[in-house]
Specification:
The chain contains 8 helices and 10 strands. The protein is α/β, with parallel strands linked by helices. The structure holds zinc ion (ZN).
Length: 257
């Protein structure tokens, strides 16, 4: 198997059971250090529920990402609409709209619960596109990153990068064998190579990564990847929220007017 990130050669990393019954075979790229699962056959079973029951980090992740995206949009002067690609139940879109950003939801795998009426197709142009916990679910993450960069000049990814040397299966939580959903794990080098190949700037800290066509101001790059700093920055400012107008729109639609 070739590396799904850089196309380089891979070598076996080990195996572990996923979903309790399937044997997943992991390989690591000798070129960029990224890790992938070879030919997962269980994905249909893995997506019986789009959001895994064990995703206990979903709310905290959404709040943290909302702080970062809001601070990024404000400091870099990026107007909406913004798109949350793979938006799940719509929590991030709701949080961004409550913070006054015109964010839209798209997810072919999930049901929009929190941002009804704020859907958008991934077509046209958006200010910021977010893809939170998306790329590790894909067999070809680079193709999707490329497609998303056709929609925007600023793409925010949330995914944990696999350390180097790559942890053996069974020794890193982000392999999430209980769900079977994570199949591609970018390394820092793999992500940087992807950015270089696509001709975009990369700012990265822990699990938040900003790929941008123009070099963003240092303040924007810092706040976009550091939730606690972004939360402090946001708390010192007031922005008009979209909460009331969204409510009015939903009531008007319910009335059929
Ligand atoms: Zn590679």
């Amino acid at each position: 198997m070739r590396c799904p990130v850089c196309g380089g050669a891979t070598e076996p990393l080990g195996t572990q059971q996923v979903l309790g019954v399937h044997t997943a075979e992991y390989v690591v790229c000798t070129g960029c250090g990224s890790v992938a699962v070879v030919g997962p056959t269980w994905l249909e079973e893995a997506y019986g529920e789009a959001i895994a029951d064990s995703d206990v980090g979903l709310v905290q992740r959404s709040v943290a990402t909302a702080e970062c995206v809001a601070a990024l949009a404000r400091t870099a002067g990026i107007p909406g609409p913004h798109l949350d690609y793979g938006g799940g139940e719509g929590l991030l879109v709701r949080l961004l709209r409550n913070r006054g950003l015109d964010a839209r939801w798209y997810d072919p795998m999930a049901t929009n619960r929190y941002a009804r009426g704020c859907e958008a197709e991934p077509a046209g142009r958006f200010g910021i596109v977010t893809a939170v916990e998306v790329v590790e679910h894909l067999t070809d993450p680079v193709a999707t990153i490329r497609e998303l960069l056709d929609l925007t000049d600023v793409l925010v990814l949330s995914t944990f990068l696999v350390p180097e040397p790559a942890p053996a299966p069974g020794t890193w939580w982000y392999y999430t064998p209980d769900t079977g959903q994570h199949i591609t794990f970018l390394s820092r080098r793999g992500l940087q190579r992807t950015a270089d190949a696509l001709g975009v700037h990369l700012s990265s800290h822990v699990n938040l990564h900003v790929l941008s066509r123009r070099r963003l101001p240092l303040r924007s790059r810092t706040l976009a990847t550091r939730p606690r700093l972004a939360a402090i920055w946001n708390s010192l400012r007031r922005w008009p929220s979209l909460t009331q107008s969204d409510y009015d729109d939903l009531l008007r639609d319910a009335d059929g007017n």
